[in-house]
Amino acid sequence: MENYIAQCVIRRQKVLDKIGTDGVAVIYAAPERRRSNDTYYPYRQDSNFFYLTGFNEPDAVLVLDGGKRESILFCRDKDPQREIWDGLRCGVANACGQYRMDKSYDIEQFKKRISGCLKGHKRLFFISKQNRKLDKEVLRPWFSLQTKKHKPQEICADLQAILRDMRLIKDAVELDFLRQAAKISAAGHIQAMKSVRPNMWEYQIEGLVLSAFFQYGARNPAYNTIVAGGKNACILHYIDNQDKLKNGDVLMMDAGAEWHNYAGDISRSFPVNGKFTPAQKAVYEVVLATNKAVINAVKAGVAYEKLHKVSEEMLTQGLLDLKLLSGSLNMLLKKQAFRRFYMHGIGHFLGLDVHDVGERKALQTNMCLTVEPGLYIPDEPDIPPEFRGIGIRIEDNVIVGKNACEVYTADAPKEIDEIETLMAA
C-alpha cells in the first residue's frame, strides 16, 4: 500500500490545484453499516475517500485547504479498550506519517475545528448527502462565514465532478490492483468450471467461487455474485442463487473479486454437464464473436458509443442468422429489435466501483472498462424450443491503449474448446 499512498499524495495535490487558493474541500469516510441489532456489515471505505487517502477506517474526514495547500485528516484516536473489541486503529499521532498528511486531529474535535478550516475561503467543494449529520456540521459554519451577497450556488461546488474525471484515468498502481482483482476473479471462474455438475445447487457454486477469492486474499467480492442456471440467466441481475442446476442447461456466472477496493468483473457461460448443445453453441458463438470484435475496436480516441453500435450490429446479424429475428439488418437496427434479446449496454467503466464513475466519451489511454455482450432468449412460445431459456454473457475487462487494448481477464477461458476441455479434465 505504500505506493498507493504515495499516489494519494499526488492526487490530493491535483485536487488542490483544481480548487484553487480560495477553495476548501471536505470529504467524509463511509460510515459503518448496521446489519442487525449490534452487528455490522464488513467495512468498505467510500471510494472517493479511499482514492485520496488510502485510509480504511470509518469516522474520518479529509479537509483540503487550497490556500495553505494542506491535507488535514480527522480520524479516531487510539483507544486500547475499543481496540480489544474492534481491532487496531491508526490513531491521530500516526496519521501524518503513515498517510502523509500535513495535519491530523481527533475526529471528536471536528465540530470545534471545522470553522477554522473553512475561514478565509470563498468556495467549498464537497459531495452532498454523503452524511447528513456531517453536512450540517460543515454547512452551518460555512454559510455563517459567508457574506449575504453570495448565493449558495456560488460558494458551494461539487467535488464529485473533479474526482470523476481524475478517477477515470488509472495510474500504474491502480492498474496493478485491477489486474490482481481480475486474476483472482478468473481463479473463481475456473474453480466453478472444474467443479460444476448436474444436480448441484447454484449456491454451492457461489460458495466455491467465494472460497477461491478468499484463498488468494480477496476477502470480499466486488458485487453480489450471479450464479444463474438455465433460464435464470435471462434475469440480468439474478442473485438468488437458490435453484438446482439441471443437466443440459447453461450456467451464466458473473463474479468478481475486490482487491484493495478495486473491482474485478468477469462473466462466463458454460454448460452444466460440460458439453454445449448445438443451439447453445450457436448462440455462444454469436456472443463470443461480438465480444472479440468490440475488444478489437477498443483503443484511444474511439467514441464509447461506437463500441455499443458494434455490439448491436453483430448481435442483430447473429439473431438473423439464428432465425430469431427476420427482416433487413438496417430495419431491425432502426427498430432496435435486438432489445428483446440484448437489453443492456456493451459495458461500463471499472475501478474503485464496479460500475465506476466517468463520462462516456472518447476513450483515453489507461481507462479501464468492461466488454460484455450478451443474448438472453426468453422461454416463450414463439421461440424455437431448442433456444428457449438460453442466456449467454461473456464479459472481459480491458485497459485502453494507444493502438489497442490489454485484455487483463484472459486467464478465464472463453473459447468453447477451452471450456469443454477444462470441464472434462
Account of the 3D structure:
There is one protein chain. The chain is an alpha+beta fold and 425 residues long. The protein folds into two domains: 2-167, Creatine Amidinohydrolase, Chain A, domain 1; 172-424, Creatinase/methionine aminopeptidase superfamily (Creatine Amidinohydrolase), CATH 3.90.230.10. Helix content is 40%, strand content 17%. The chain contains 14 helices and 19 strands. It has helices at 2-19, 47-53, 80-86, 92-99, 110-118, 132-145, 152-155, 159-168, 172-195, 202-215, 278-297, 304-321, 329-335, 416-424, and strands at residues 23-28, 34-36, 39-40, 61-65, 70-75, 103-106, 123-126, 156-158, 220-221, 226-229, 250-255, 257-259, 262-263, 266-271, 368-371, 374-376, 391-393, 396-400, 405-407. The strands form six sheets. It has a six-stranded mixed sheet with strand order 6-5-4-1-7-8, sandwiched between helices. Strands 9-12-13 form a three-stranded antiparallel sheet. Strands 10-11-14 form a three-stranded antiparallel sheet. Strand 2 and strand 3 form a beta hairpin. Helix 5 packs across helix 6. The longest helix has 24 residues, at 172-195. It starts with a helix and ends with a helix. The model has no long low-confidence stretch (mean pLDDT 95).
